[in-house]
Specification:
With 110 residues, this protein is mostly beta strands. The protein has strands at 16-18, 21-23, 30-32, 57-59, 77-78, 82-83, 90-94, 98-102, 107-109. A three-stranded antiparallel sheet has the order 1-2-3, with no helix packed on it. The chain is elongated.
């Protein structure tokens, strides 16, 4: 049995097929199964610029780093970022700190 998408209005997971349409039993919303297109997650920086793998960003706020006595300072450039899924959506290497993960809300694209 194929996995059906949840209702776009109420996010109900109990949708069912009725011919060419998908129907939500909770809110009675009907939509076309053909029109369902999965969106790619777009990761944006603190000012709304779209980030991509390989971009260079700068840190916009002093960040405490676990296991280190010195924080990551404002203006630190991070080169060649890699976008990943999860709460911390940037994977990178920073000179003096090594490999770490950052949240996109604390960086700005250069």
């Amino acid at each position: 049995m194929a996995e059906l998408p949840p209702c776009p209005h109420c996010n109900c997971e109990y949708t069912y097929e009725d011919g060419p349409l998908l129907v939500c039993p909770e809110c009675a919303h009907e939509w076309s199964a053909v029109a369902v297109v999965e969106e790619e997650t777009v990761i944006r920086d603190s000012v709304g610029n779209v980030l991509q793998d390989g971009d260079t960003v700068t840190v916009i706020k002093d960040l405490k780093v676990k296991g280190s006595s010195t924080p990551l300072k404002v203006g630190t450039k991070v080169k060649n970022i890699r976008l990943v899924d999860g709460d911390h959506d940037i994977d990178c290497k920073i000179d003096g700190f090594g490999a770490m993960k950052l949240k996109s809300i604390f960086v700005k694209k250069v």
